[in-house]
Amino acid sequence: MPTSLKDTTTLHNGVKMPWVGLGVFKVTDGDEVIQSVKAAIKNGYTSIDTAAIYKNEEGVGQAIKESGVPREELFITSKLWNSEQGYESTLKAFETSMEKLGLDYLDLYLIHWPGKDKYKETWKAFEKLYKEGRIRAIGVSNFQIHHLEDLIASAEIKPMVNQVEFHPHLTQKELKAYCEKEGIQLEAWSPLKQGQLLNEPVLQEIAEKYNKSVAQVILRWDIQQGVVTIPKSVKEHRIIENADIFDFELTAEEMDRIDGLNQDSRAGSHPDTMSVGF
Predict the structure, then answer these.
(1) Which of 31, 62, 228, 243 lies 20 to 30 angstroms, CA to CA, from 150?
(2) What pTM value is reported for the model?
(3) Number of structural domains the chain divides into
């Protein structure tokens, strides 16, 4: 069980990935994202998760430079946007991301959404970049079991990570079991369902017992079941609070109660229909 923000899970290729990171979805480029990332790094975070479509890779890169923390101590993730899927376009999009971030290599690069029929050629480009040492780990985001089965059937290298919408209203039990069986690390985006879970009575009751916030209870629930989590905040006190989840442990009964809140409901798009235009 992780005991601090520095603790990591080991991906199937031996790369160590922090259990908790900072997500920067919907964080504006420029000062807002720079301050957010610098606050996280200053308070012990080493993992930062961005994406081409967030349009804030420059700010993330700037914050990394200004943080004064050596590059090799950080774990930086970005994602390839849907319109860039395909072999050549992926290679090009990767270079653009690297230029914006001002980095020589990425720790993790993800296919942002499966789409319909291009993710296999996209993956070939990922494998090439991985073999060249430009990316330490490669993975996917928002892939359902059928996408993963299809990809793995023709892949040389199995994805190391699958980052999906995951929270107490969307517990993704089958997908989680499948990823565990295949040695693919599951990672939660929108772990707090964009704030929609904060008034959930069961979570409030558990939070009160431990003198923690509902957000802290949810993030603890993530890591206790072996799911990497990347809560987003632009407020330093929240960034600190989101990481303060290592001094309590939920009981098996509490974990079950939280699982029981599942409604299979999403804050974001469904991966099978999020394929328009690519």
Answers:
(1) 228
(2) 0.97
(3) 1
CA dist list (Å): 231 to 75, 129, 133, 219, 242: 15, 28, 28, 8, 7
- Structural domain including 213 reads 8-259
User: What is the CATH classification number for the domain harbouring 125?
Assistant: 3.20.20.100
Distance CA 243, CA 264 (A): 26
- Asked whether residue 275 is domain-assigned, the answer is no
For residue 276, tell me if it sits in a domain: no
Tens of pLDDT, residues 120-142 = 999 999 999 999 999 999 999 99
Residue in the structure block whose two tokens are 């690390």: 185
pLDDT tens by residue, 55-105: 999 999 999 999 999 999 999 999 999 999 999 999 999 999 999 999 999
Per the residue annotation, which of 45, 54, 109, 130 is the catalytic one?
A: 54
Residue 54 known to be catalytic: yes
The answer to whether residue 267 sits within a structural domain is no
